[in-house]
Amino acid sequence: MNEITAADQIGFPILSALVVLPLVMLVVLAFLRDQRTVRPVALAGALIELALTLVLVARFRTGGADFQFAEQLPWIDAIGLSYHLAVDGVSILFLPLTALLVVLVMLTSWSTVRHQPKAYLMTVLGFEAVVIGVFAAVDLILFFVFWELLLIPTFILVKVWGTGADRSRAALKYVLYMLMGSAGLLIGFILLGVNHRDAPGSDGELSFDLLALMDVSVPTGTQTTVFFLLAFAFALKAPMFPFHSWMPSALLDGPIGMAVFLAGLKMGVYGFLRFVLPLVPEAFTTWSWLIAVLGVVAILFGALVALVEPNLRRLLAFASVSHVGMAMLGLASLDVQGVQGALFLIISLGVTSSGMLLAAGFIHHRVGSTDIASLGGLAKPAPGLAVFSLVACLSAIALPGTIGFPGEFLVLLGAFRANSWLASIAVLTVILTASYVLVFYERAFHGPVTSPVVDAVNDLRPREAVAALVTGLAIIAFGFFPGSVLETSKGSVDVIVERLDRPVGERAVGD
Amino acid sequence: MDSFSVAPLLALLAPVLGAAGTVALRDRPPARELCGVAAGLVQLGIIVTMVPTVLDGRTVSFTISTFLPEAAIGLRVDALGVVLAGTSSLLWILTTVYSMGYLGTGPDRALARFHGYFGLTIAATMGVAFSVNLLTLYLFYEALTIITYPLVTHTRTPEAAQGGKRYLAYQLGTGVALLLPAIVLTYTQSGTFDFVPGGVFDADDGGPLLVLIYVLFLAGIAKAALLPVHAWLPAAMVAPVPVSALLHAVAVVNVGVFTVFRVVLDVFGTDLASELHLGTVTLAVTSVTILMTSLYALRLDNLKAILAYSTIGQLSYMILGVALLSDAGRTGGVLHLVGHAFAKITLFFAVGSVYLASGRTAVSELRGIGRQMRWTMGAFVIGALSIVGLPPTVGFIAKYFLFLGAADAGQWLVIAVLAVSTVLSGGYYLRVMRVALLESPAPLLAGGSGGDPSVLPKPSITESPALVVGPLVVTAAVTLLLGIAPGPLLELIRAAARVP
Predict the structure, then answer these.
(1) Over the range B261-297, which residues count as b (16 or more CB within 10 Å of their CB) and which as e?
(2) What is the pTM of this model?
(3) Which residue in A401, A416, A431 is closest to B188 by CB distance?
(4) Which A residues, 71 through 90, put their C-beta within 8 Å of a C-beta on chain B?
(5) C-alpha distances out from residue B6 to A481, B64, B80, B140, B189, Å
(6) How far does the CA of residue B52 sit from the closest CA of chain A (Å)?
(7) Helix crossing, B109-129 with B31-55: angle to 10°?
(8) What is the mean pLDDT of chain A?
(9) Where does residue A328 rank: exposed (0-12), middle (13-18), buried (19+ CB within 10 A)?
(10) Does residue B209 belong to the interface with chain A, where contact is any CB pair within 8 Å?
(11) ipTM, 2 dp
């Protein structure tokens, strides 16, 4: 696996630019005196960022497994740290996704966030910079730094701009959960670095570089230890059953914007795909049964709770648990199509979950609640909102023709090859998903209008309609044309799955 | 031989454009309805141009998107696809005209929505007809479910909501829980999603698993309404008559039967099907379905309910024909798909016409109505003769092939089932004809039993308007014509049924 530098490919360090641009905008906002210009300026920054990520995708060379747009600067040589950014087929698509979600959040929070809008937008921009860093970092310690930095804007956003009464608790709960995994994550990374120094055939240096680490073999015992340390941290973030309980409270009490990021950016699953599968393939293969079982339990558990959950935002949290379970089942299939499906699924969920949460936000803003008891008959006063919600719902139940389908389909293909019993259970829960989504839609949007608040609801405003339209089009377009996404990721996924079949130890000896 | 052409895509897009036009002209009836008619004519034209090619045994393809490396979303037209597409297209045009008479061309925007969804339904049907592989078929199959839901619940009454829910639950539930796993398992077993004449499986690998896959397909294709996944069809009776026509003749059930045909012919192949005794399995299920529904329909008084159960039985005839695994049986099955569509749509159109003119929905209320509505009841008789399988209708020809196929295959039990069910269906259709044609008109009572109480019986019943009567006369005429001169159609049917 090689690297193509940014200098060769595009002539400037585009990934650093993507990290720095939101920070520049953050500083610009800080100096803006006129409150009226704050929102347009922030949005302009987010749009430029989005355009830049699209340039990145357009210049990406598909077909291989190379890391591209690479840039590397020594940081702390003594302990082998470097500032090393690059993207490959696994990570690149998360960049435009992140940029898109930021734009959507800015559009939809335009008139809903009234408290300190400037500070809110600055925090969102800070969050964006850090997330781009998470997805672009290929040095483990650099990744860890971004990963931990993530907690700060998240905590602030939930605590200050949360819409629920319990927002302080929700913010604290989130941070505590994440910190539980952090220590283990760092230890796991250090173990890998030390192993690199001691491994036969290496240059005897500490290194935390993903590419360098993939070239040395890791003894089975170390693999197992590292696997559990990393898996725990990423499972907390995903969130994977049974480590999910921060999510319902964060989605219910946090601001809608943050909920979109938390449910839309499946960084935990990304962590598995980026670090666990390539770096400790043997341990992952050995323990894949555990991941698969937990995945199926999560699918089932999330769907069953969602079925009886009366609040839309909590329902979406459990739906997310269920969807993450599906993605984990795909990874655990150890099959090219299963893993590709898992990757497609988490990217598609970025669009679908955000769509559902944006809809929840529109409802909350209008009715003041997302409890099913206070809804009913929304389609009558707000047909546009109803159509948008329906498209998002259909994608959530993975109907063919929506972006939700290809990922789930590929995961099931892979899962059936790996273990048809687990896969059969997973298939049956698809019906549960269809039930809870459609039952909710039916009760919220159809039926008689019972509340005067619902009766007086406005349909989507222009800015909201733009956000809804973009999301809806993405759902349908990638439902019919998923090929481009799969093509982009194929080369990198192939290499990852190949390593599962043929562990590093054999490679090191054989190559 | 396969050639590339955009014609299949155009046939699929024509109704989409028609629907868009309908919505754009939503406040300008009758232009919005005529938009659908025009799109239908264009579409029919495109389909007809492909007939010579498929008669030659060639196919026409168009790839929409490379969905997975192993499976594109694409279209490929063969004779079987043309049979389904042509039937749907022609009947769509007639149903649109009929709807103008039945639902009116008022300023109501609900009608624009109705015609718009109708067009999208036809597009999804084209997608199924021209699917190049299981994945594409599944995509359009499920799309059809979603698009027809607002049509089933068109009246927005509580009963419609109830019926619609059951419709959706059956369709989506079976689709996701049974059909999708069947497709996935097919792929994991065979390594392909493609339709290949003669089948995709290696006969040696895993007999029991292949049988399981087949059973998943049969139960998962709920649109074919085999027992026990038939209950959605009677539940969908709440819909207005043009929607019933859509479900029973134009699109939905045809798609179901067509999908079973594809699975038997191009996924399993007749050789493997006979080796695994899949034909026998299917014959058992279809025979039970035929007998049960015939018996059940005898007890019913509501006309639409009788027709609904009759449809369930007739669909099983078609599937039975293909499951006989003989040339004549397959010909009969495919021909019945077309013949039944024309006959059943005639019956629904007639029932709608009676309801429009008199507000009556039950057989027992029809006394003497044949004298007041000669055209309508005349067409009804032709449709009924065809369903029962009597000459000179297309239903007779189809049944003749079925009997022939059963005799070829040595399935004497099947012949007995066909004979018994012919007598039974003759029983319930004859009852309608006797009441309507031979008895003298009934004294008028306020509010038909089971009818909409808001529609009082009109003092004197007269024939429905021309926009209603016209289409049903045409469909009845086609039913007769195909019974008298089936020659040209039969050539296409035989190509579709893979008769050498």
Answers:
(1) bbbbbbbbbbebbbebebbebbbebbbebbbbbbbbb
(2) 0.85
(3) A416
(4) none
(5) 18, 10, 19, 18, 32
(6) 31
(7) 10
(8) 88
(9) buried
(10) no
(11) 0.76
